[in-house]
TrEMBL record, chain A:
Transmembrane segments: 12-30, 42-59, 71-98, 104-123, 135-153, 165-191
Family annotation (Gene3D superfamilies): 1.10.1760.20
Name used for this protein in its record: ECF transporter S component
Entry keyword set: Membrane, Transmembrane, Transmembrane helix
Domain of life: Archaea
Amino acid sequence: MIDAHAVDLGPYGLLLVNLALLSMIGWALWKTEKNISSQSDMIVLGLLGIFAVSGRILLEPIPNVQPVTVIVLMSGIYFGFTRSIILATSVALVSNIFLGHGLWTLYQAFGWSLIGLIGSLLSDKLHSKNITSNTPLMIIAALSGFIFDWTVSLSVLHTLGPDLLLLYLFSGIPFDLLHAAGNMFFVAWLASPLSEIMTRHVTVKKPSAVKELVQNRI
Amino acid sequence: MNALIPFILTFLSISIFIYQTTKMETNLFPKAFATFSLLFIIITFSSISTEWNRMSSELVDEADDPHYGLPDLWDGKQAVCFHFPADSTPSNFNDGRHHFDYDGTDFKTDKNWDSTGACVGGFEGYENGVDLLNAAVEATGTTFAYDYTQYPAGIFIDSIAGVIPCEALTCAVDFSSGFYWQLLHNGAYSPVGISDVVLDDDSVLTWQLASY
């Protein structure tokens, strides 16, 4: 019998396939969102959740690089804390069905919720500064990588003593750097389209919702 | 830390170049910088991670552990240590016990160790003592090259790093008493020669001068 699908892509080939799939999903969601007449932010949260889950699963070959942190951060900025919790916990749970579910899922959900909280708390400041570039958001996103990783690292307290926690955090800094660089990349390239989408669906009547688009078009 | 400096300098140099070439274009710099940063870290991640792990490693402090005094980076891996008499230690290693990783990088020195010398570790998969010893010697160039005499039962180490026992310490003229390179396996005297040592996954071989 001919095994016509048994093509050995290798790790880099598979990563390229994953990037192509993620691009297709992103493009399709972008187009779909434009045709949604409802102003409900829950629909766009669902679309963002699909992209975040897909991104986390498909980018799994690159350690600690995924779009979830930036998406949750921006959902916190635009939609507020409670909606970012919905996104954070559901993305952590659904993606971990594929990547592995355990106690760490709770810490990941908590960590991303914390990023959503930071986003919602900084929403006013970002708004008042009338951001014309992504630089402040890039800095916040980079720091969010460290905050999320350190929050999730607290789960080692179940197995290691608190005296080893600092050593554990210190030894993980290269992975934190990778997360921070990935977040900066996603802000640089996704903040503008995400900002457009989110702005169209902001229904929360509170001053913390950002009114202006992030301007990063070349 | 020193090994990380070239990475940092390269990153800063290219970042400045990107800034200079993109500053005229509005908002091009963040995109270019973020993309470069991510690619740089992905490409160099393996090296950065290795150097960082070496820098952040600590010495095992459990006295009953065969890896006692060795970097925890080598947990579960194999190592070879060379301990020299204080007066005959090669000049590079007379300030404590140096630790060389499997690629020959001298990354940590224990100045409080009770003997001077060096350990070479981070090896995996060796089953025979001679093979591990040779790997450790090759990893550090000719620093710990050894001379030996071949006997039917195996090899006998005559010198390590140029240190000949009866030149470093005083032996009887008729050699009725003296010193030799003694082999320890996981901290205990090895009843068999280096040729016949069967290694564990985390074996530690130690060479030191002992009297007979």
